[in-house]
Amino acid sequence: MQDQASSETVRRTPEPPEPAPADRLAALYQEVTELGRAVRAEAEDILAGWPAIPDERGFAPSAANLAHYLALRRRDLRPLQRRLMTVGLSSLGRLESRVLPGLDAVAATLAVLAGQPAPPVPPEEAFFVGEARLAKRAAEVLGPAVEQHGVALLVTCPSTAADDPAFMRSLADANVEAVRINCAHDDAEAWGRMIAHARAAAALTGRPMKVLMDLGGPKIRTGAVRSPKRDKHLRPGVAFALVPPGGLDALPEDAPAFAAECELPEALSMARAGHRLFFDDAKVGAVIEQVMPWGLVARVDRAKADGVKLRSEKGLSFPDTDLTVTPLTPKDLADLEFVARQADGISYSFVQSAEDVALLQDQLARLRPADWQTLSVVLKIETQKALRNLPAMLVQAASRQPAAIMIARGDLAAEIGFGRTAEIQEEILWIGEAAQIPVIWATQVLESLVKTGTPLRGEMTDAAMAARAECVMLNKGPYVLEAIAELDRLFERMGGHQHKKTPQLRRLASW
């Protein structure tokens, strides 16, 4: 019986897999080699289309890697990925920071397996130099990340922080890397007190905190509104008018009963019939039907059944309209007089092109000619146009000063639709890693916990995904310290499981 059992065990033991046929390996080698040649050639064309400015900070290798990544991702690589998996090789899914070394290493291994003369294998340091550049640049913008959480924290200052030194002390005690001051609120006197409290807390605790200041930028919001007395809610099928500031009294008699001022009048002249329009963080979706000398008429095609009240001070978004508006308003230029001299970095709202980046850099050079390039710039990606121009914007910014990307998920979601937000935030993370530039994951992180003290399950999952960014931003709220503590615990756990797109095979303790 024992002999029979042993023979059955032998019969059930699977045979070792047969080696891949030489012709299949040779074909794969040829395909990967051709892919590498095409990526190199196309990257040259991509690089030629970006701003030709002096590379004052050694960004050229990172720009080249970004160009190689964009050239690579113009293709659908899924069929090739599956074939590479069958011979036990990298499926090219984690090449963001090392495009050419990754391609070349796969090609060299395939050559050996196929019995062909092998090209040289890239040196080990070539695989990790991009990670080192990214870590160094993240520290420049945000300060060194605390090992406990690994991901830097950026905390928004409430207005009360101007007169509450204990708030900044509590952030420093919690190992917060950076604080954010929004220039849309308060004034230079209050900002100065906030910064003084932050510097004092850093000196007391030995925990330096970077100060980033948000420029307000042009606000596309509703001003004064009018609506029928019997019903003030926009519902599907309802028409409404948008007019310039002060334009409500000039509306013709046949204009819709619902009407609102648009505080950025240029948007009205740039919009066209058929363009989409969103109101109040995309709670209302509409399509523009008419563009008139006095404004425009749009009709609601999406809103909840009981409607959304038409109110002033609510955001407007024109996702199909090419808004060529200067991102530096007169208020921003006035605020820069303070910000450029007091902050460590500037968050740039409504930046949409490399020219917009150069505009800010010119102002900084005027205000701080000796050392403006020590100031960091955070590019807030809020519009579809900014999304399209992100690579060129990064080259313009990072070639001259420390730079980072902020995924402004609230504004961006209103532009591209909530259905695409998850996809696009992933792609921005990939672009940041390919450019070896830090990314800040912003808007509504642990929002319920920050405001009410109780997190939602979906928020915790979202925060866990945020661990792949270099920094997470928390908005102001009475329970922000509790949120910081929760993020510390979450990031400490997630850091052992995931780095960027790469799973970390830490020992599992649950089974």
* Strand content bin: 15-25%
Please work out how many helical segments DSSP would assign: 18
Largest sheet: 8 strands, parallel, barrel
Report the CATH topology name of the largest domain: TIM Barrel
CATH class descriptor of the largest domain = Alpha Beta
How many structural domains are formed by the residues? 3
Alpha-carbon Rg, integer: 27 Å
CATH superfamily of the largest domain: Phosphoenolpyruvate-binding domains
The order of strands across the largest sheet is 1-2-3-13-14-15-16-17
Low-confidence parts, pLDDT < 50 over ≥5 residues? 5-10
Distance between the termini: 35 Å
Overall number of strands: 19
Tell me, rounded to a whole number, the average pLDDT: 91
For the record, the CATH architecture of the largest domain stands as Alpha-Beta Barrel
Shape: globular
SS-based class:
alpha/beta
Helix content: 40-55%
What does this entry look like structurally?
The protein is α/β, with parallel strands linked by helices. The protein contains 18 helices and 19 strands. The strands form four sheets. Strands 1-2-3-13-14-15-16-17 form an eight-stranded parallel β-barrel, surrounded by seven helices. Strands 4-7-6-10-9-8-12 form a seven-stranded mixed sheet. A two-stranded antiparallel ribbon has the order 5-11. β8 (276-279) and β9 form a beta hairpin.
